[in-house]
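Researcher: I'm preparing a figure for a lab meeting and need a structural model of a single chain. I don't have an experimental structure, so a prediction will have to do for now. The sequence is pasted below. Please return the structure as tokens so I can convert it later.
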Amino acid sequence: MKKLYIAMIIMLSIIGVICITGCVNKTKNETKLISYKMNVAYAENQIVGTQTTTICNYYKEGLDKLCFNLYPNAYREDAKFPSFDKAMESYGGIEIETVMLNDKDKLQFAVNDDKNLLIVNISPLKLEESISIYMTYTLTLPICNLRMGITDNNIKLASFYPQLAYFENGEFRNDPFTTIGDPFLSECADYDITISAPSDYIIASSGTLINSNKEGDNQIVNLTASNIRDFAIVMDKNYQVTDSIWQNKVIKYYHYGDENVDKTMKIITDSMAVYSDMYGMYDYPTLSVVVTDFVDGGMEFGRLVYISSNDSDLETTIAHEIAHQWWYSMVGSDSIMTPFIDEGMATFSSMLYYKSIYGDEAFESKLNAVCDSYSLYEKLQKMRQTGVSLELNKSIYDYTDYQYQMLVYQKSAMMFGHIYQTMGKEKFKKGMSNYVKKYKYKMGNIDNMIEELNDAYGQDIGGVVKGWQNACCYYVN
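Model: Understood. Here is the structure written out token by token.
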């Protein structure tokens, strides 16, 4: 009954959307081609949600289907491509109940065999024609310390909603989930989310707070965000919130009573200052740094990062995850097929943070530690004749977890360190800031990056990059 009551409230609160219209002066390289309007209500470990996704068709003439990733179904106990590698306390998943055109006409829809892709049939769209798809769903949250789930009073909502799949080579991609790397790929979109939750929860999110009201024992909170690749929410009854203003940006730190809160806030703002100077200003109005019981050190989302409550190197983790606001969020790359780009740049950027804050010796120490670790790994592979590929141009499906750590994080960071030392700070800074400027809110790749670095350097740096992408190892001193 409680679920039905919440669902009725949400249905009554939905604002109607305009039917199929034209996209005015929109091209693939412009923004605001996808928007999500959601109403979600949390109660008893479930989310009851409604969602209107408005999409401009720049994909192809006669587009007759849309595909949405159902990431929560990787948390099903019987998932073929699960989000977990060991048994969880409880499992989750998402059930799509209704799919309609503009909240009026029912549409035919189906899910694939593993239930990780929603396929919606539509009447063929012309190029630059837009469509709004309305759907209702029920999300069951697992009990786990992964990206999405519940532990004690902490609720993590990441990739919790049907998200439009990435379109490439004439079709929407279906990328299976994996526990290695980040199996997510999406374009930037605008979000307008209203969430209903018990009033005693503190809510951290990717969005800007528009308004908040109380209705009985619940709070109704409206949040918006523009030009981000995903929207994350974390709720906890025990959060303390420390905030500050940096360069007109609102910085919020959600924690459980950090005894060194001033030091932590300085790490956050120093990271933003270093990367804004090197790559171009942080372009969003807010950033939320959220301590949670996440199984790994941290995780990046649009305008929000997780920091594990058990992390042993808080400073490095914060610096790394905030770097992802440039290398993942503002400038996209294919984190599934070429994960070394964003992870390598985030890892190397954290070294530049240490260089800026603590000096050259700290930078060299960080870089040399990575070089020593990776070089030992490579020597062992060759000595044991394992036949393991040392190339960087591999997808997340081609690595073990150990290989992913060694190559995608460490070897790629060495590569960017070599490029930095070859070009010098100013030319590297010019090339990378131009890359950010050109591909902000878009998808870039290594060839795009090389082009900007070449322009800044005045000669071809591509040979160095390609050498690192292949099996050879260079030693950076």
